[in-house]
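Re: beginner question about structure tokens

> Can someone show what the tokenized structure looks like for a real chain? I only ever see the sequence side.

Sure, here's an example I had lying around. Input first:
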Amino acid sequence: LKVRVVRSSPPSSQFKATFQESYQVYKRYQMVIHKDPPDKPTINQVRLVPVSFEDPQFKSSFNQSATLFAKYQMAIHKDTPSECGENEFTRFLCDSPLEAENAPNGPDCGYGSFHQQYWLDGKIIAVGVIDILPYCVSSVYLYYDPDYSFLSLGVYSALR
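And the corresponding structure tokens:
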């Protein structure tokens, strides 16, 4: 097994040289694991949503995310419902000391805290809480629907 890290932005020569092969692996994964038809667009299956109650995507998905968090915490960590309510979810995974920043030379999404939402059939099945910083991406927490544990979403998220 050989693992390479190749720069995707700006695209390096290695990235350009392996793009089609990488895309075919991705497409096959989507078709086998997620049962996507070969022509299904997949751009909306993973959404990077800024952690901000002023962001429409964050606000519209908040209840679904909080409910999924509670389901995960109770199934995986054996928390009681009072330990994983909406207030605990907000304190633990929504309140961030990071300020959102859009630097001219930074990524299109900007810097700050994000919820990387994994959608399947119109519902969120996993959320990776990440901080995007000038020199790194920090994985803060990942929670997923235990009904989909067979997909190894934690591994997929780490690789992504």
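Each token stands for a local structural state, so reading them left to right follows the chain. Helices lie at 13-33, 56-76, 86-93, 153-159.
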